[in-house]
Amino acid sequence: MADESRIGAGRSTRSLGWAIVMFLVLPITIVVPVSLTDQRYLSLPQDGLSLRHYLHLIQSAEWLSSIGQSFVIALGSMVISVGAGTLCAIGCWRIGTRWSETIRVLMLVPIIVPTIVYALGLYRLWVKLDLLDSYFGVMLAHGVTGIPYVVIIVSTSLASFDPRLEQAARNLGASVPYTLRRVILPSILPGVISGSIFAFIHSWDELVLVLFIASRSIFTLPRRIWDGINEHLDPTMAAVATALVLVTALLLVLDMRARRLRAE
Amino acid sequence: MTATAAAGAPSGRRLVLMNERTAYWLMVAPAALLMAAFYFYPLAEVLWISVTEPKPGLDNYAQLFTSASIRRTIVTTLRICVLTTAITILLGYVVAYVLVHASPRAQRWLFLGVLVPLWISVLVRAFAWVTLLAREGLINTTLRDAGLIEQPLALIWNEFGIVIGMVHYMIPYAVLPLYANMRDIDPRTVSAARGLGGSRFYSFRRVFLPQSLPGIIGATVLVFIFSLGFFVTPAILGGGKTLMIAEYISLQILDLLRWGLGTMLASTMVLFIFVLLAALARVVDLKRLFGAG
């Protein structure tokens, strides 16, 4: 302990560090009291707490349809990202040559290139393929852009998987698909779950692509929030934000479970 | 085991004979094809449009040097990005430093505080800032009710608001690479410097700081690049008054239908980012930086 105080952070540095972390967390929590306000405009509760904005939220056909659409799209795109991404990670891991290395590097491009740039090209391609403003169009776009994250997360899982287990299964006569299903997938399952959660959130939160490739029939939750912030700020938005924070917290807990599983 | 395998996988029996390598390439194929057709092809088309519309040639690129509004947007974007990156790295460094020296219990809480915002929707975070900073927002009304101000402070729809929102968004992206680097620094080196009579600050500056330089460079690159093309937070907190390049591009396309100009700016941004990365690839392990170690 004495040693730690000699080389560790001084008291003022430590306080500063904690203050910065508070700066990260506290502003977000403001949406909770605002969502419970009894006023009709964005404010802290004045004469008491009220659930009217939550009531308004669950009675609003617009908000509900957006939540539903976002959920369906996020599930669909999650299937695309996780299916393609997991297979790709395993394939690259087993091939392990310069080619598969190149593929893995190329997977980083969508993380580096700003979404707005891709959105322009995507719009043009979707015009040609007649996919604008359709469930499938948005799912495909979100699914494809989610693949790199799944590849990275599953690859991390594979790095700690003993390749000799797979070799043993193959030597004992198991086919590639059988080995995949019964030997590799079960041991990297926590990574796949983490990847799925990430892919789901990636789509659930995505705004920029949706602004370009969807307009009327597809109006996802981020799009609805975006319109709300730009046009009519009211406490219903705070209720939505609070609900989203709670859902995220829930997913985070699930992810931590998956990580703990992976660590064991 | 062989018997179980054979019994459990009748459909896979034929595939046993298949070349193993082919099987693994087939697994890579769906992702590779999806990415090629629906990511890289449209991305390439952006570059293509920038030199073909409205007419073939580099006319669009000439506007980089002639248009005053483009120059203004680029200067604004660079100024905000540099400022954001500098503040973010400074604050992120403090957090990473405290993290690496904290007790395991404190570490868990600090980590939670850094990671939770990362998971929360960027729109929710921007909305929270609007609630706090707007003209009739909580900060202004509180200060007014307390009698400290008469006119509301201009905290939003300007560069100040954008920088606050962006720093708030970027800090976790800075903390993670900084922390990863600091974790590998042997604390005994600092201990030795202290033992030899160096003050706390001197030992930090001469022993710890130089060793954390790779982390600083990596985090700086990451934050700067993410800031350059950032759309959501600057668009909301800038309120259409302060335009950064991503929002400028979307206006060109969605409102003005100026595809040549929009794709030119998009291509320029991507080229700039890749030149930057190529220059830094010598110093930083990029794959590790972006999470694919």
Topology, element by element:
The complex is a heterodimer of chains A (264) and B (293).
Chain A: H1 2-7, H2 11-29, H3 31-35, H4 52-59, H5 61-95, H6 98-106, H7 109-112, H8 115-129, H9 135-159, H10 163-171, H11 176-204, H12 208-213, H13 221-231, H14 235-263
Chain B: H1 2-8, H2 13-16, H3 20-52, H4 59-66, H5 68-101, H6 104-119, H7 122-133, H8 138-145, H9 159-183, H10 187-195, H11 200-211, H12 213-228, H13 232-238, H14 245-254, H15 259-280, H16 286-289
Helix pairs in contact in B: 3-15, 4-15, 5-6, 5-9, 5-12, 6-9, 7-13, 9-12, 9-13, 10-11, 14-15
Q: Summarize this, please?
A:
The complex is a heterodimer of chains A (264) and B (293). Chain A is mostly helical and 264 residues long.
Characteristic key phrases:
heterodimer, A: 264 residues, mainly alpha, MetI-like fold, globular, disordered N terminus, B: 293 residues
Approximate helicity band of chain B = over 70%
Describe the sheet with the most strands of chain A: none
Strand content of chain A: under 5%
Task: Return the structural class of chain B.
Answer: mainly alpha
Order of helices and strands of chain B: HHHHHHHHHHHHHHHH
Number of helices of chain A: 14
Which fold name fills CATH's third level, the topology of the largest domain in chain B?
A: MetI-like fold
Tell me the span between the first and last alpha carbons of chain A: 30 Å
Radius of gyration of chain B: 25 Å
CATH architecture of the largest domain in chain B: Orthogonal Bundle
Q: How many structural units, i.e. domains of chain B?
A: 2
Mean of all residue-level pLDDT scores of chain A? 89
Q: What fraction strand of chain B?
A: under 5%
How far the N terminus sits from the C terminus of chain B, by CA atoms, comes to 35 Å
In total, the number of strands of chain B is 0
Total strand segments of chain A: 0
Describe the protein's architecture and organization:
- The complex is a heterodimer of chains A (264) and B (293).
- Chain A has 264 residues and is mostly helical.
- Chain A has two domains: 2-35, no CATH class; 56-263, MetI-like fold, CATH 1.10.3720.10.
- Helices cover 80% and strands 0% of the residues of chain A.
- Chain A has helices at residues 2-7, 11-29, 31-35, 52-59, 61-95, 98-106, 109-112, 115-129, 135-159, 163-171, 176-204, 208-213, 221-231, 235-263.
- Residues 1-6 of chain A have low confidence and may be disordered.
- Chain B is an all-alpha fold.
- Chain B has two domains: 16-52, no CATH class; 60-289, MetI-like (MetI-like fold, Orthogonal Bundle), CATH 1.10.3720.
- Chain B has 16 helices and no strands.
- In chain B, helix 3 packs across helix 15 (259-280) and helix 6 packs across helix 9.
- The longest helix of chain B has 34 residues, at 68-101.
- Chain B is globular and about 70 Å long.
- The relative contact order of chain B is 0.11.
- Classes of the chains: A mainly alpha (264), B mainly alpha (293).
- Chains A and B meet through helix 1, helix 2, helix 5, helix 6 and helix 7 of A and helix 1, helix 2, helix 3, helix 5 and helix 6 of B.
